[in-house]
Amino acid sequence: MDFLKGLFLFDETRPMIFTDAIFWFFFTVVILIYQGVHRRIMLRNAFLLLFSLFFYYKAGGFFFILILFSTVVDYVLGAAIHRSQKQAWRTTFLVLSLVINLGLLSYFKYTYFFTDLFNQALQTEFKPIDYLSLWSNQLFQTNLDISKIILPVGISFYTFQTLSYTLDIYRRQLEPVSNIIDFAFYVSFFPQLVAGPIVRASEFVPQIYEPYRLEAKEYGLAVFMILNGLGKKILISDYISINFVDRVFLNPTAYSGFENLMAVYGYAIQIYCDFSGYTDIAIGLALLMGFRLNINFNSPYVATSITDFWRRWHISLSSWLKDYLYISLGGNRNISLFTYLSVPVVFVIFLVADGWVWSNFAFFLIVVSLWALWQLYPLKKWIALMGIACLLGFGLLLFVQSDWHSFVLVCLIIGFWALLLMRPELNTTVSTYLNLSITMLLGGMWHGASLRFIIWGALHGVALAVHKFWLDATGTKGIEPTGFRRFLGQFITFQFVCYCWIYFRANSLDTVFKMTSQITSSFQWSVIPQVLSGYSEVFLLMLLAYVIHWIPRKYKDNLSLRFVTLPDLAKAAVIALVVLILFQARSAEIQPFIYFQF
Q1: Tens digits of per-residue pLDDT, 443-479?
Q2: Is the whole model's pTM more than 0.90, yes or no?
Q3: Which of 71, 202, 416, 526 is 20 to 30 A removed from 295 (C-alpha atoms)?
Q4: How does pLDDT run across 398-434, given as a tens digit for each residue?
Q5: 518 and 248 in contact (C-beta within 8 Å)?
Q6: Cα atoms in the Cβ-side hemisphere of radius 13 Å centred on 171
Q7: Residues whose CB is less than 8 angstroms from the CB of residue 337 and which lie 6 or more positions away in sequence, other chains included
Q8: Coil, helix or strand for 590?
Q9: Is 139 left (phi over 0), alpha (psi -120 to 50) or beta?
Q10: How far apart are CA 421 and CA 423, in angstroms?
């Protein structure tokens, strides 16, 4: 009975993930049953829906109720948007979908963050309450802890998926699904449910109604991707993390600057192998069942610019942000009302997170007032000059108070405002820069409710804006760099991305400062030979991972093609060998995928 309970009941200490043997036991059962149902589309979809909900229950517990709620809400609202003839009603239903979905996401993901900011600014002591647990206690006499709000697994991913459905229907780019079973299957499809890739309705829904098909070449490719993903996760990511990266990030000052730097490079390849490994497995599993998901990573560390990096890293998220957020903000056309509102809101968040001082409040009100006046009367340059003067004074005050993140933000706003003042004909261009920055900043906040993630997103947003400015200024837009310029672009981009990863991985901003301080002021060149010797296996594995990553794509494709063309017995031998190696290399405890926390 204990074995059966462990098999079918949720265990928060051991959620079901792709690297767990229990998952492969269940997937084997699914594939066997799938042989008998895959020809009947309705039955196939219903069967996969039931297993997907069971998978989500085993991965995240009773939060599968939330995904059912989101499914019902967006199915009903999507149908209402499609039926409505008046634009006002269509917009109302869309706004309702946005409010409900983003409201749920904000409650579970950002309640603690904004409560802490509010308490810090107003010196209050409000405490968040888990109202779902409270209602459960009241209605069903349960005894759940109401003082801790638990983040449901994968809520950020399936929220974006359901939103893409209503948004695409609103834009008349998609017809609604024929029944709620099919829509629930799209939302909860288990391979990509908890950590992506983010699958848009317009890409996946048409496949729901297509008959099953899987060519021999696709079957071999699916198996190869699954093995490749498991190797990335277990053999590289987990080993580097447990044996080196986690130790340094836990206590940076106990290690030399060289070890801190190598830990940053280690985390860069760790998170890539972890996340791309998950998506490789997800794409392979989906393909075995006849569904085709888009590629989510394309050798991001060979990128020649930060723009190129975001064309290669988490492609499903960056394209989602571009199509549904960046364009909605105004894109490269103009600044929207939302952009105007975002600037002071972001300003307040940085001020409070840096340490709110009430003497700053007067400065803040004056600057926002002058900004608003200048938007109403752009020809009156003296308003802008007063605003820039106030910002300069504000920046000086922040510099004295050592509120560095807010200080940098003020400097950027001064730069944007001064450029608009001197070159008003660049209004559209500056709007593009601002929209890029806001989009990436919100993308950073999507990753986590912490100032670290906001700064990480802001750094990437500013870098994208700077790169676009450089292309405009030099007239090199659309020209691929070659030779030394290509190498230099790759080197600078990689170093910048790795620096930003410190904010992403560190447990606090204090850890960020400690790591950067160790790297810049306590590098300790003399200990390098000893460190290389002591962590020889970790560094060799890191080097191997980077070398494989930098191999040109055509050679990697050739390797997968060679596996696909192997006889079945040879494939089986390779699979057995890989499984044996992974079994020997895996850690004692199952290591969750990094993006499960989002």
Answers
A1: 888 888 788 888 898 889 889 888 888 887 777 777 8
A2: no
A3: 71
A4: 888 777 777 887 888 888 788 777 877 666 777 777 7
A5: no
A6: 14
A7: none
A8: coil
A9: alpha
A10: 6
